[in-house]
Design goal:
CATH topology: Ferritin
Number of domains: 1
Shape: elongated
Mean pLDDT: 93
Number of strands: 0
Order of helices and strands: HHHHH
Helix content: over 70%
Low-confidence stretches: none
Bound molecules: MU-OXO-diiron
CATH class: Mainly Alpha
Structural class: mainly alpha
Number of helices: 5
Distance between the termini: 24 Å
Largest sheet: none
Oligomer: single chain
CATH architecture: Up-down Bundle
Length: about 180
């Protein structure tokens, strides 16, 4: 059993995760168009992860006798000024998601909903990692610039990151089960 307030707040989170998935997919497409294959792979990977974040809440709501609402998703931006701008927007969006998770945790305490509080611990940890990852990539781009040679280097690093993340996932190390 879940309170109406908690159910509505989790449905809002479903919307946010669904939007993140579409937003990163649009960024992946733009990077691909610009020849940034590694950045595109990375953003595709992130987009799939966001869909998984959404589905975890979907299943949780059904488990606690709530109703998961399939969200309408606004059209994300399709064009970006630069790769630096892409990752700036990723970082800003992740900060927004973290804030939203924190608000959900606050509602859990207000509603004495310790089941949902327990469920959200995974998201608290995931947000710490995702925010840190987005900030690290952005800092590197800022440091080495986004001229042609720098972009080539960044793109190669992204490919390595995706390969490592996929290997960790195959080994069941990402806690995303
Ligand atoms: Fe599901 Fe990256 O927030």
């Amino acid at each position: 059993m879940i309170s109406e307030k908690m159910e509505a707040a989790l449905n809002k989170q479903i919307e946010l995760e669904a939007y993140a998935s579409q937003y990163y997919l649009a960024m992946a497409s733009w990077c691909d168009k610009e020849g940034m294959e590694g950045a595109s792979q990375f953003l595709h990977f992130q987009s799939v992860e966001e869909k998984e974040h959404m589905m975890k809440i979907f299943h949780y709501l059904s488990e606690v006798d709530g109703f998961a609402i399939t969200p309408a998703i606004p059209q994300p931006p399709l064009e970006f000024d630069s790769v630096q701008e892409v990752f700036k927007q990723v970082y800003e969006h992740e900060k927004k998601v973290t804030q939203s998770i924190n608000e959900l945790v606050a509602i859990c305490y207000k509603e004495n909903d310790y089941n949902t509080l327990n469920f959200l611990q995974w998201y608290v940890e995931e947000q710490r990692e995702e925010e840190n990852q987005a900030r690290t990539i952005l800092d590197r781009i800022k440091l080495i610039g986004d001229g042609g040679q720098s972009l080539y280097y960044i793109d190669k690093e992204m490919k390595k990151f995706v390969a490592a993340a996929q290997a960790a996932e195959a080994a069941g190390e990402d806690g995303n089960a």
